[in-house]
Amino acid sequence: MMSTKFTRTALFISSFKRVPCLSDNSLRRNLSNTSSRWAEVGFIGLGNMGSRMAANLLSKGHKVTVFDVNSMAINTALKQGATNASSPAEIASKLKTIVTMLPASQHVTEVYNGQAAKICNNMLLAIEMIGVSEAMNLGMKLGLEPKLLLEIINMASGQCWTSKVYSPVPGTMENVPSARQYSGGFGTALMSKDLGLAMDAPVSGGVGAAQAGTLTFMVGGGNKDHFDRAKGVLQDMGNGQAAKICNNMLLAIEMIGVSEAMNLGMKLGLEPKLLLEIINMASGQCWTSKVYSPVPGTMENVPSARQYSGGFGTALMSKDLGLAMDAASQVKAPTPLGSLANNLYKLMVNSGFAPKDFSSVFQFIQGAAKNK
Prior knowledge:
It is a single chain. The longest helix is centred in the N-terminal third of the chain and has 37 residues, at 105-141. β2 (22-23) and β3 form a beta hairpin. This protein has helices spanning 50-59, 71-79, 88-94, 105-141, 146-153, 161-165, 188-195, 206-212, 224-235, 242-267, 272-279, 287-291, 314-331, 336-353, 361-365; strands at 10-11, 22-23, 26-27, 40-44, 63-67, 83-84, 97-102, 203-204, 216-217. With 372 residues, it is an alpha/beta fold. α1 runs parallel beside α8 (206-212), α10 (242-267) crosses α14 (336-353) and α13 runs antiparallel to α14. A five-stranded mixed β-sheet has the order 1-7-4-5-6, with helices on both faces. The protein starts with 9 loop residues before the first strand and ends in a 7-residue tail after the last helix.
């Protein structure tokens, strides 16, 4: 879960037929304005997560149009019933609901930058138009003559393109829509479409949950009405990024703590399975100790039982910790343990542990880097 500035693994659901605005402070996930459970969906990004999420949408009856740079991934989706597009722009031009599942922010930016400037501009234009309209209406109610008021605004700091070129007040400017009963020009419906609805919907659960259709979506940034509009598509793939990075920072700290405690106990002569049972009956218990033990031989069907293969990669955990540290720095939140965890996972990545599950921190702590 990441703050809006730091979304890198991204789910976007868009009400735009064009792509949404991506600003420095927000790579926003956007809502469909359709409530249909069987919407036509554009899906960009068919990696380990995206391919399974798209397959679940197809299996639930959605018409899905896909794009990916990997032709093999596209071919697999086509066999499952999807149709393909030649580019993200083609998907954006044809579909109202768009999902992107991309590995890093640079990929998100590459996909969305095509029309980003236009949408950002139109958002600002809408704000200016409303502001000029409010200011003019207030001045007129205070007895000011509208043409004179507009001239004053255009000689002062409130001037903008709207006040200088596109006045919304009838009788103040020629050859603009307000001079002809607001006919012509850029339609209100088009402006509304470009502004769209935006919500965060980061995912949690990994590849297994994507396959099973049991992903958890942590949705934020809008109101309940916005959420209800996106719910149909979200439900068919699973159950603010801020929550995710906070959760994953805590998960990393817990994993390191469990690994340290288990390693210490084993060096003191305790049998690991018994030690884990004791911890899980005492106050040290946590999700890691109960569900995701990092110690080989203490739990079945977890990465530590299969040489740390599968699961949630060390490189991905390191990435999320970096996002958490960036966010903490921005809001000036002290994270001493988070910082230590971040440094440790960076060291693991540089020591060859990047492809292993993040629970391999136990192996790293044991000093097994040279035997990896």
